């Protein structure tokens, strides 16, 4: 029974050999990484401004 299963699997593998093709694409693969980093910059500037105000309260009276 095991032999028949192994032969069936081998035959199925051989019959699919011509159907699967692996080729390199004609054009280069393009990965578009348009990521907005605006939020990170704004947060950094906000933190820097808060640190500046806290460390120098005489410069920014309330």
The arrangement of helices and strands along the chain is HH
Mean pLDDT: 77
- Which spans of ≥5 residues are poorly predicted at pLDDT below 50? none
| Proportion of residues in β-strands | under 5%
Q: Helix proportion of residues, in percent?
A: 40-55%
Our Rg estimate from Cα atoms comes to: 32 Å
**What distance lies between the first and last C-alpha atoms, to the nearest angstrom?**
88 Å
Q: DSSP helix count?
A: 2
Outline type: elongated
Topology, number of strands: 0
* Largest beta-sheet details: none
Structural class: mainly alpha
Report on the architecture of this protein.
There is one protein chain. The longest helix has 18 residues. The mean pLDDT is 77. The chain has two helices and no strands. The protein is elongated. The protein has 62 residues and is an all-alpha fold. It has a domain of 27 residues.
């Amino acid at each position: 029974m095991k032999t028949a299963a192994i032969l069936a699997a081998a035959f199925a593998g051989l019959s699919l050999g011509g159907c699967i093709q692996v080729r390199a694409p004609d054009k280069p693969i393009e990965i578009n990484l348009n990521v907005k980093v605006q939020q990170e910059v704004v947060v950094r500037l906000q933190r820097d401004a808060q640190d500046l105000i806290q460390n120098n309260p005489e410069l920014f009276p309330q």
